[in-house]
């Protein structure tokens, strides 16, 4: 078995019951376990035994009463849950989503450094800007700021956080018990940041963490998002529907990184994939159809309307998706949905089912071979450096992927059979952070 | 062995190396373990095996370069560390310090609800307002707001958090998979809070947690602090030097709670105690003196100056403490230190050593019997409902307390030998939170 140089990276996108919007209604789902730690410990330990690079938790900062009715919650806060999972895992990376719109950089830098310490170097931060008025209304505002302004704030937020992570030099700790000197104060720096959004003196109140900085992850695919990713991200989560689109996006991210003076290998592109696995393609399609049967059109329409920022309840379900208005919310997702409906000539009702399994991520129902073939094709044709695995039904879907798909990828030499490092940075083949990379005035 | 109705409550005040300011210089201290999870797991599991009510972590939001030189750090962020410890303990309560000055109530309510879920009802929140300019300077300000204003904000913060915890009714979750109804939306409430400091729509993005709300803890002993504790706190940490002072404080808290219409039992008063344990009193004093030998006068003076908000380096070390100016920082601590120096007629040098072991908390070097006698005396004479145990040297001091003092307390029927409940609320003998208690306009 030949081991090619380049292997793919796999992240498990954790959710309570699964990524299919009706997963919680499936008879196999134990709804009560959604808020129980034991449920997530099992999933994390399975993913670690299978040698996944990392676990990831998304987040949003609001839930509506109608969303709650149909099973939507924010659920357990990502850093809380991943901190707990750090105590019962040893190797797998832990990527938490935290918004730059509703937090202070000092607190966020401190929490990620803390997670990186307690996990011995496994922390990652999925940087989001948050895009809905419903979220802004939980944080002293009526409306979310404009897309451009949110990213401007995110840039400065990251600048401050990075300065704080670097505020304790790599060799600042002396720990001389006899002399009573813990740190070389010349290597502990105040940062004196003064910007448009934040003023932060520093230093950070915790020494530099095992990875130097957490691995920076990004998931917005708008023009602002791609620019942000090119400048800062070390891994990018993205929703792509076709090989061609994924290739275009992949190329764009790598080019953008190069424009910022970074090597294309310093940012890994991981499209989401929502697999449904069967012994035959027919069995897989049957499983998928069964999950679709649990969907509720009213809820699906509510979700889609929220996602595209337009009320779609007035349009006929069996008619086409109308032209969507420009939005200041999640721009890239709206564009993807519009293109999908147009390309496949879908009615609204058909579109709801196309989105039910993965909210716009690539869904595939097939045999382990078919799925492995697809992953290999994307990986070998510059569409992906790896994948964000999103089981539609969390427990069973993850088990199937690990049992039937992973061994095929390993046989083909595409995925590790053992961890070769101990930190997330090592799993992803990333270098120690270059303390020169973050600079507010950097222009590509 | 008779079991009296009332038993004392014991909290372990966690630190890296110990509460003595020179603990890290002791040859037995493994400095490297200060940021390692394994170190805290060991301590937490020991405290749980000994049936402590809870673990507690303090916090501050800044460190200076000079502080870093002498071993001061914020260390691992409390909620991060306690979330990790939730995964490897089953019964012990987990009390994290979070400031109301540098956080958003939506985030804090969410994080405590999350910790309460993953720990099956063991979360507690030590509410602090933070009192130094150095902290404010990490959060976009030059100076910390006035004492009164900080407490005003803290009150509104707690009001918002409590409304958010109550925003999912106890019976809101239906989880009807067949009908596809997860929650009864009539029992999920928007809170529409609009105040002087915060505007928050709600509901919280996580269902109500096992304890309803985390146990609320408070540690300020100023007039504002006592008022705040009387209104909200379910446990109070406090520094008291003598039985008489402790009795006065105990009475004040209970009276203040009654003035807010609360029962005196609904708030537990837990003075800090820093024990050094020897087979003989002489051995204990010898151990204490050994720790004192590791102190550094320059650092001790720096610490004391910070604590009282006045530069003391200009005063003769062997002269008396000067009259301290009024401060807008930690008022109650300054008062305690001034009174201690005056009562015991201490020079500044002597005062530094009196404070080295516990920063103003009650320090006692003695035999297990002597220490048990003191605890029993305070407990039976309305000075304490229990204690905040602060080992001067973390590992050895905790081991000694568990091995030699706890069995005496248990023989006397003063402390549990088994947990009788599973939640922190049950350990402390507290009721399910009364959703009527939090009201911004409440006036005692």
From TrEMBL, chains A, B:
KW Transmembrane helix (keyword) present: no
Top-rank taxon, per record: Bacteria
Top enzyme class: oxidoreductase
Stored Gene3D superfamilies: Luciferase-like domain (3.20.20.30)
EC identifiers of the protein: 1.-.-.-
MF terms in GO: oxidoreductase activity
CDD domains: Nitrilotriacetate_monoxgenase (cd01095)
Classification via InterPro entries: Diverse_substr_monoxygenases, Luciferase-like_dom, Luciferase-like_sf, NTA_MOA
SUPFAM superfamilies, alphabetized: Bacterial luciferase-like
Keywords from the named record: Flavoprotein, FMN, Monooxygenase, Oxidoreductase
Domain Luciferase-like: start-end pairs: 29-378
Family that this chain belongs to: Belongs to the NtaA/SnaA/DszA monooxygenase family.
PANTHER family, per the entry: ALKANESULFONATE MONOOXYGENASE-RELATED (PTHR30011), C2H2 FINGER DOMAIN TRANSCRIPTION FACTOR (EUROFUNG)-RELATED (PTHR30011:SF16)
Protein name per UniProt: LLM class flavin-dependent oxidoreductase
